[in-house]
Amino acid sequence: MIGEPRDPQARAWVPWILVVLAFGVHFWGLYTPSPPDAGALSFPGLDKLAHVVLFAVPTWALVKVVPKAWMAVVPMLVHVPVSEIVQATVLSGTRGGEWLDALADVVGIAVGWWTAVRTDPVLGDVEATE
Cα 26 from chain centroid? Predict the structure, then answer.
């Protein structure tokens, strides 16, 4: 793998730093009371694309560090309804929970899982599965 240390024990914490950073952005993006305005860069569907990315990146990072991919996918799937319920209730003044957002979240989880599995020789190299 790219960036793989020669000594397997060396820098084993680096992937976990990526997980922490990914989840930091994930939680900020989902739970900030007032998300940033895209202004002139805004386009229809930007919110849904943001949901896909906010779930794809942490799922990808988590799949890379846990022993089994389902250990990343299941908690992320559980977090989908939780995030929408929190947005609809706790942040109801500025945010709202939508089932289309939840669908985008699930798509993001699938994209993150698929990307991690298809690009990791241990999890399932493209050549090995075809």
Answer: 7
Contact in structure between 63 and 72 (CB atoms under 8 Å): yes
Q: Which pTM does this prediction carry?
A: 0.81
DSSP state of 39: G
Of 69, 49, 62, nearest in space to 21 by CA: 62
Q: What does the block give as tokens for 10?
A: 């060396």
Contacts of 20 (CB under 8 A, 6+ apart): none
Q: How confident is the model at residue 128 (pLDDT cuts 50, 70, 90)?
A: very low
Q: Name the nearest CA neighbour of 108 among 81, 70, 75, 80.
A: 80
Identity of the amino acid at 78: V
pLDDT at 86 over 80: yes
Q: How many CB atoms lie within 10 A of CB 80?
A: 19
* CA-angle at 48, arms to 42 and 50, nearest 5°: 70
pLDDT digits (tens, 9 = 90+) for 19-45: 999 999 999 999 988 777 767 777 788
